[in-house]
From TrEMBL:
Domain EGF-like: start-end pairs: 134-176
Entry keyword annotation includes Nucleus: no
Name of the protein in its database record: EGF-like domain-containing protein
Disulfide bonds: 166-175
Top-rank lineage group of the source organism: Eukaryota
Keywords: Disulfide bond, EGF-like domain, Signal
Stretch forming the signal peptide: 1-23
InterPro entries documented for this protein: DUF3456, EGF
Length: 215
């Protein structure tokens, strides 16, 4: 097909370029998310370009055809990847048929391209708050991974192990404990707040000093 030819030609060109360095390696989910962003930008650009308003019946018919046409899809796909973005070009080449399928058949039923394409079809992303090959909930639950106090490894991707990397104030596997130098200002089963401003009752060593000062 038209698109296949364009993209294949493009990949041929790319084969002559050196392999990308691993320093710039990003996850397939990042690649997919960026690609979908560019798709939306392409939709926007092509709609500006082609809808002037105040059209005759003939124009309206032609334009509404354009709106869902292969021509428009090709224009959008041409601009999906920067020429230097190897991962993006490979992804488009590999999954061009699915993108076409979405465009012609799935778009109405599944308007969210990222969800349909990146999460459910090519399975490189997960819903946020989940990770890994099967999109399992992060530690602390998918609603508030790491209890809102850290970042879940692989969050939103098919990678990672769901473990928490806590913000500076927090520690422990669930980011519910206070790190050294931080003190709890409130906690229950699902929420924990730590801050540099200590509450005397949590800091036995300093309690004496503070109570002496206050007397
Ligand atoms: C825990 O604390 C948070 C924040 O103060 C509150 O919104 C939540 O309802 C509390 N949960 C329980 C089970 O008490």
């Amino acid at each position: 097909m038209f698109i296949a030819a364009a993209v294949s030609f493009y990949l041929l060109l790319m084969l002559h370029c050196p392999a990308p360095s691993s320093a710039t390696e990003k996850s397939p989910c990042d690649t997919c998310t960026k690609l979908v962003d560019r798709f939306h930008k392409g939709l926007e650009d092509t709609s500006k370009k082609n809808f002037g308003g105040g059209n005759t019946a003939w124009e309206e018919k032609t334009l509404s055809k354009y709106e869902t046409s292969e021509i428009r899809l090709v224009e959008i796909i041409e601009n999906l990847c920067d020429s230097s973005d190897f991962e993006c070009n490979v992804m488009v080449e590999e999954h061009e048929e699915q993108i076409e399928k979405w465009w012609f058949k799935m778009r109405k039923k599944y308007p969210d391209l990222r969800k349909w394409f990146c999460i459910e079809t090519i399975e490189v992303c997960c819903p946020s708050g989940t990770y890994g090959p099967d999109c399992v909930a992060c530690l602390g639950g998918a609603e508030r991974p790491c209890h809102g106090n850290g970042f879940c490894s692989g969050d939103g991707t098919r990678l990672g192990d769901g473990s928490c990397r806590c913000k500076a104030e927090y520690t422990g596997p669930f980011c519910l404990e206070c790190a050294d130098g931080y003190f709890s200002t409130g906690r229950n089963d699902t929420h924990s707040f730590c801050s540099v401003n200590q509450k005397p009752q949590f800091v036995p060593r300093i309690t004496q000093y503070i109570s002496l000062n206050r007397k």
